[in-house]
Task: structure prediction
Amino acid sequence: MAKVAIRFLLNGSEKAEFVESGTTLLDVLREKLADFSPKGGCLQGTCGACSVLVDGEIRLACLTLAETCEGCTIETAGGLAKDGVLHPLQIAFADGFATQCGFCTGGMIVASKALLDRNPAPSREDVIEAISGNVCRCTGYEPIIGAVLAAARANSTNKA
Amino acid sequence: MALRHGRGVAAINYPTGMNLGGDPTQALVHSTPTGNFMVSLSSVDLGQGLKHIMAQLCAETIGVPTERVIVDTADTDTGPHCMGTFASRGTHRAGNAVIAASREARQVMLEVAATALEVNADDLDTDGQGNIHVKGAPSRAISIMDTALVAHFKQGRSISGRGIFLVPRSYPDAATGAMKPATCYAHACTVADVEVDDETGEVRVLAVKNVFEVGRALNPKIVEQQLVGGSWMGISHALYETTEPYYPSREHGPTDFNEYLMPGPGDLAQTETYVLERPAADGPYGAKGPGEMCANPQIPAIANAIFDAVGVRIDVMPITPERILKALLEKAAASPGAAS
Ligand code: FES
Ligand code: FES
Result:
């Protein structure tokens, strides 16, 4: 199959790659760009472990063709920490013991960031809705819900 | 036809480890030249926090801060042998092995320090902050880093220790069948509140209240994390999960997350967990295995709550709407005329 050239911004840095037409964004991120924060859990859109933000919108990288991301801005959980300082969501997940094996964590954090970006003061129901496309096998979800609410609170006190 | 409420209770004993042919785990501990301690294991951390617990146990036994301990669980080809992380045995078996290895390493460390300080090793103690001092004379002291350097570069000694914890195989008594398959037992009790729709057979778990007796919670936050997740898994076992819905037939077995049911974030029961600590005599600082135990009592408690709600006993898991409806029909057929 023909190769296509793609360029996008990954966590603030410019990337240019030649990929086989039909390659998923997940494969490009993991195999070509060594960003392992999105995981391949099911590769069919049912677990959310591969969640990333494309131009601010949450997307399943396993179902997104890389060539459709030409010129886009892509954010992953791996790019959230800035200069060694963790993002409030990462701090809340660690403090709230919201991660065990960690396989779902990258996707959970991206889904939560998508929520907080559009709704900085979510209710418990808003959080449940936002992460309901993400499967976690370990935590029972409760600590994750708690961590997202804690991150939202921390954000609002920081701004106040 | 109505939504019917029920409450059920169940309590369990849960064995720590299993013993089908002897149940050993080994650990090795050695100091680096800078006085950090390295724990080598083959036991696996799969998210339950085993590495951190082993670091705590080594640090507590040797007398250094937890940050000074590095745990390597890398490779079953090269690591000391472990039966594996299953049967709620990790903390108990590997933990006891780590403590044994750390005791031996601590003894060597104190002997090295004793030579350096020109005192008797029996007169030395650690402060838990990385220093060794003469009991009653805190100023006669040497840091563990200096002790390690002295051992490596002057005395030519290896500050290291070996540990194994073995539960020997227990054979059944020929006459009675009695045997000792496990060591200490953890305990748990759950009260479950459910709502059953007697028209559709659907069950909603409204609340689970769990009490877990774990021996000693070596790291209370990690224990809580495991118990909360486990309680959710117990509900999932009771009502959702199966790979063989028509066992022994494999028909309609799920093959992906679309078909393999688990409760999602929208299906959570209100969950309370309480921890009781009754230290086990043979446990590492009293700990038992909380691992699998935490996902067990919810299952019979929910089955009992369903019985309380609609009067049918389902003894096959998962308790699906189909099974409840069938049982309700059978019950109605068995007592015609009786209002359900
Ligand atoms: S890997 Fe993309 S949704 Fe599961
Ligand atoms: S922490 Fe293991 S899947 Fe969520």
Notes: Residues 142-159 of chain A form the longest helix (18 residues). The two ends of chain A are 54 Å apart (CA to CA). The pocket of FE2/S2 (inorganic) cluster (ligand 1) is lined by residues A 40-43, 45-50, 60, 62 (CB under 6 Å). Chain A has a mean pLDDT of 96.
